[in-house]
Amino acid sequence: MRVSAKVDYALRAMLELAAHPDGLITADQLATAQKIPPKFLESILAQLRSGGLVASQRGAVGGYRLARPAEEISIADVIRELEGPIATVRGVRPDELEYAGSAERLREIWLELRSQMRGVLEQTTLADLVTKS
Predict the structure, then answer these.
(1) Which long-range contacts (CB under 8 A, 24 or more apart) does 79-84 make?
(2) Residue 112 burial (10 A CB sphere; 0-12, 13-18, 19+)
(3) What is the CATH number of domain 5-132?
(4) So what's the pLDDT on residue 2?
(5) What confidence tens digit (pLDDT) does each residue in 34-50 have?
(6) Cα angle at 7 between 3 and 77, to 5 degrees?
(7) Cα(first)–Cα(last) distance of the chain, in Å?
(8) What is the pLDDT of residues 63-114, one digit of tens each?
């Protein structure tokens, strides 16, 4: 599995928000706390906001917060919002692949890999990671 910078930055920002559930945090504060390029972070936050994972408030006392409790947001939720399906092979879902001859059973491996990754990523919430620190 390859984790993009976009997903890494998004998860770091989401965890920072989860660690501060009672207040708003500005994009600049998030960028500084997690050493994320500010312009890239703003784009990520906009996508997370449109996906219903973060909420924002404008103004002098504005900022960002999680849109739902950290216990209700899984790592898989964040990945799917930013990049779509958890595991694909050449952009195709494993259950849609067909192989011939000696490679025929390769599809089973991709399906099992997807299942295992989804299990870990869907069962791990932001709260799990924040409370384990």
Answers:
(1) 79/7, 79/121, 81/47, 81/48, 81/51, 81/53, 82/4, 82/6, 82/7, 82/10, 82/44, 82/47, 82/48, 83/4, 83/6, 83/7
(2) exposed
(3) 1.10.10.10
(4) 80
(5) 999 999 999 999 999 99
(6) 110
(7) 24
(8) 999 999 999 999 999 999 999 888 888 888 888 999 999 999 999 999 999 9
> How much is the pTM?
0.88
Enumerate helices (H) and strands (E) in the chain, giving the number of each. 6, 2
Q: What is the SS3 assignment for 33?
A: helix
Task: State the number of CA atoms in the 13 A half-sphere of 38 facing the CB.
Answer: 5
